[in-house]
Design goal:
Layout: H1 16-19, H2 32-39, H3 49-52, H4 60-68, H5 72-80, H6 86-92, H7 114-128, E1 143-147, H8 151-162, E2 166-170, H9 179-182, H10 191-203, E3 207-209, H11 220-225, E4 228-233, E5 237-240, E6 253-255, H12 256-264, E7 283-287, H13 291-302, E8 307-311, H14 323-331, E9 335-337, E10 340-348, E11 353-367, E12 373-377, E13 383-386, E14 389-392, E15 396-398, H15 401-404, E16 431-433, H16 443-463
Parallel strand pairs: 1-2, 1-4, 2-3, 4-16, 6-14, 7-8, 7-14, 8-9
Antiparallel strand pairs: 5-15, 10-11, 11-12, 11-13
Length: 464
Amino acid sequence: MRRDYQKKTRMVEQPPEERIKNFDEVAKGYDEYAASIEASRCLQCKRPRCVEGCPVEINIPAFIAKIREKDFGGAISIIKEKNNLPAICGRVCPQESQCEQTCILGRKQDPVAIGRLERFASDWEREHGAKIPEINAQNHSAKVAIIGAGPAGLTAAGDLAKAGHKVTIFEAFHTPGGVLVYGIPEFRLPKSIVQAEVDYIKKLGVKIETDTVVGKTVNLDDLREEGFKAFFVGTGAGLPMFMRIPGENFCGVYTASEFLTRVNLMKAYKFPEYDTPVKIGKRVAVVGGGNVAMDAARTSLRLGAEEVSIIYRRSEREMPARHEEAEHAREEGVKFRFLTNPVEVLGDEETFSVTGLRCIKMSLGMQDESGRRRPIPIPDSEFDIEIDNYIVAIGQTPNPLVPRTTPGLDVGNRGVIATKDESGLTSIGDVWAGGIVTGAATVISAMGAGKKAAQAIDDYLRQK
């Protein structure tokens, strides 16, 4: 069959009718032939704008050239010069709005599938054994504490370890990974992949202390007394948001954070093998239009729901979820109710359980501060739908524990730690912050924040 070089090389996926019955990874990745074919589409631009679109500034043309030459070890070596978590980024990062958006080839054809090629190189390395760079602890090496083992913390820890520092990550949960383990479902990011990336960070010399809640178990002053000279706070989003509409206290209402944590981190999808049941009825409504909403909806289907609806107050055009995630949800049978917003959760007063959702239709007005058109309720357009579960996926706010227990640490709007510059330097001279604590909304942007902070911390410690 003739190959269409204007299109991205297809990646094998589980058929929708099969994948909604399991939690196995949907996309299967490239084999060596498919990867080399896709790599051959790269134009090897003299001014590679794809690099400008990458938050961690990977030399994209160089690693793609290595794949085209079938030097897969060389490809992953180039990637890991900048990215400590490539297998994760290749699966969940929004390349279509970053590196692939700026790909020159994408002006007339499909852009090069940069994310798929990054995933291929990292998967190849995992199968053939990862090379650990030699680290020479220098005279300026110091003890650095990382608060939170999410993508920002892991990235900062890896870079600081490579620079020769003695790094310890303090993680509140029993498993490192942050949102990578509690927020993203197995079918999109297998936890074995996350564990392999965490193991690589450990091999760089990073220590990880789990079940340690900084702000409760220990605080920054305690760590200073133990000899830590600099700190990076990457504690993630600990507070889910509700819509504050009537009926949100009925049984059967979840925040997406609670729901996905129970399913992913606590293995509710393997009940009764794991003693963490989660109740899902036949009809589920998920409010929100981001990747988390898609994850909650697709997870509900796999847990046995017969009808799942995404309710989003704007149109499809304004929906922030990745196109690929929305298409996968649609293929699996998720229904979309656009220009619709919940106004009340309906329930049975005797059983105190959810029975329905009252919604109102919306229209779009002028653009707001997000650059999207503002949704406006249409008077007298309310209608009811029958549901058994209601999942709120409208965002989260930063965990407030570290700011509350750290005198002198300034906080801005919505609990976001205030920073002075792009490095994430806070109001305290030896403390940096990054990731969701400073508003970063994606894994790769959180990693970019961790990378900038690591460089600044290294500079600070050298000067000291």
